[in-house]
Amino acid sequence: MRICIVAEHASTRFGGEAFLPVRYFSLLQARGIETWLIVHSRTRNELTELFPQDKGRILFVPDLWIHRLFFRLSLHLPRRLSEATFGLLNQLITQLCQRSMLRKLIRMQDIDVIHQPIPISPRFPSALFGLGVPVVIGPLNGGMEYPPAFRSSESWISRAAVAFLKLFANAGNSLLPGKKRAAVVLVANERTRNALPKGIRGRVIEMNENGIDIETWRCESGSAVRTTPLFVFVGRLVDWKALDIVIRALVQVPTAELDVVGDGPMLEIWKSLAQETGISERVHFVGRETQPQYAARLRQSVGLVLPSLYESGGAVVLEAMAAAKPVIATRWGGPLDYLDRSCGILVDPRSYEALVTGFADAIRHLIDHPELAKAMGDAGRKRAVRDFDWQRRIDRIVEIYDALAKEPVPVTS
Question: How many helical (H) and strand (E) elements, i.e. helices and strands, does the chain have?
Fold first, then answer.
């Protein structure tokens, strides 16, 4: 088979969904499957370093002046409004460039299947249609809203604009019907299935968005846990990650410390909050770290905390599970797909105060019951190996590719 992965960007450094195209490309190549990758040139240097032997198989969309203009304009808007306007336009421009590159690649390399793993939003239009080759899209994961008690935390301008744009999601997917005409659309859960545009013609198959490299995140029995109870948060420091909930929770648990791995626009605000609440000596902002660095830090901890209010996925949850560490997370969105009572503590987002108290109680409970923390970590590791191993995901993806290559689904009307 000959496969082409098409994505806005592919990176191990960007975090979030950008990591997914890298994994598909590298793991398919490792299995001897001829694979190409078409992405925006913003990650050219990183991909060239990661795959020096595959330079001819990675094609880059040039960084156009209009890309740069829309990016600068997006910086002045709230996150969700930025993503739904200038972010959307930027990605559509990239996809239109990719269409032209794909036509040439299909003609020259006889591509069997096109796979577009990101963007993971179920409503985002796709320009990959009418290319004469079956298209796989996803796994998608979305259809998210903030918990009811937190809906007012987003500005009314952002909420109104996103609601307005959702009304035209079906129109956008009619103009660019890549999702509607895809041979296979992969969805992470029923919530995402319900958010798909109307008129999907291909098969809709359920598959988790994220996977885990079991070897990278292996648990090591010789790892020394810190004497002072340590918890770890990892992620981009943006408002919806709600790190302030854990900071306030730590005020109620004076024996616990927190390492914050990541960077972002809320860094100084949350540093100030740690100082104002008198616990700055127990909250350590360590910045970005590589996976091996973060894995070593996680192994020394009691567990992971994820107070996010808008987490459709949550790869960090799987990483903690694979490292045999329990997870404390908000009972909302992605963590519900990964965690159960055997391996995590989910806190109901009934109110801000309830979340703070719930995280404090959960942190205290794991500190006071180390045997429970270990049992939950062991259960999480077993679940990660059984259900989320990347190698098993690739097995399933290859089965889908193979079926499409042998019996292509019609891709034009």
Answer: 17, 13
C-alpha closest to that of 316 among 259, 270, 355, 265: 259
> Residue type at 15?
G
For 113-123, b/e burial (b = at least 16 CB within 10 A) is bbbbbbbbbbb
- What would the pLDDT profile of 226-265 be if each residue is shown by its tens digit? 678 999 999 989 888 999 999 999 999 999 999 999 999 9
Full-model pTM: 0.86
Would you give the distance in Å from CA 184 to the centre of its chain? 20
DSSP H or E run through 204: strand 203-206
Is 270:197 a contact under the CB 8 Å cutoff?
no
DSSP output for 315-379:
HHHHHHHHTT--EEEESSSTHHHH--TTTEEEE--S-HHHHHHHHHHHHHHHHH-HHHHHHHHHH
Give the SS3 label for residue 68.
helix
How far, in whole angstroms, is CA 303 from its chain's centroid? Answer: 20
Query: Locate tokens 């808007």: which residue?
Result: 77
* Predicted confidence (pLDDT) per residue in 359-392, tens digit: 999 999 999 999 999 999 999 999 999 999 999 9
Sign of CA dihedral 328, 331, 333, 335: positive
Residues 6+ away with beta carbon under 8 Å from 276: none
The three state secondary structure string of 90-136 is HHHHHHHHHHHHHHHHHHHHCCCEEEECCCCCCCCCECCCCCCCCEE
Q: How far is CA 295 from CA 46, 89, 320, 342, 376, in A?
A: 21, 36, 8, 22, 18
CB-neighbour burial class of residue 294 (10 A; exposed 0-12, middle 13-18, buried 19+): buried
- Residues 116, 6: contact at Cβ < 8 Å? yes
Provide the 8-state DSSP code for 185: E
Q: Token pair 């703070």 is at which residue? A: 356
**Separation in Å, CA 333 to CA 121, 142, 313, 318, 376:** 14, 9, 7, 14, 21
- The alpha carbons of the chain give a radius of gyration, in whole angstroms, of 22
